[in-house]
């Protein structure tokens, strides 16, 4: 059964969501610096004459097109839980340089290049879901994806959940080693997190091998000062205590009761990697 803290957390999220109807603010993951390059995430993203969905369409850009952020406009568009500013941009097609406005939600929130491949991280949609245990509670669930592109061709893509809008304050996207897993070329790690206590952060590891992306089970971490925390991590073969062609899921949880006594939980799961896929041992 879920803890009392979890129930209160879900109800708090619902209250905050209702309050947002009166004041729309941009998610921090969609904050982009002026005079900095960015990349298009959503294919056939429309470029408009002004920062408005009804403005004239000037052009459309494909996934992985590089653009330059010229200026952030104060206008914010909300689609589901994705709330982003419009940006004035410039871009080049052939020998021609053009300008226009783009919605920030269509841009990558992280991108990396390695071994001739471009890896892109972006938020894709919001889905209204019911909580599995407390079905009277509706949750706005965001989804993200990681794409791998070679030149202008999309090679592969994997999607995963990223929690509610409160978890979209901060993001990172990094390339790590192969963690000594057989046949794995490299590992990608995409993270989104919130800034307040009680707001979950999500870590998504994605393996890259033979031009394929393989998403590992998602990790979630959340804490509330010294009253409660829930942490999840993987132990890979190159970590201290790691085993060959194995990665271990480790969970720790602590919650204090009304008498300030700590109640702790721990769990371990072992996943076997055969060079192509993984399975629970």
From TrEMBL:
Task: Identify the stretch annotated as signal peptide in this record.
Answer: 1-18
Q: Which domain of life is it from?
A: Bacteria
Q: Which UniProt keywords apply?
A: Signal
Official protein name in the record: SH3 domain-containing protein
The protein's organism comes out as Chryseobacterium luquanense
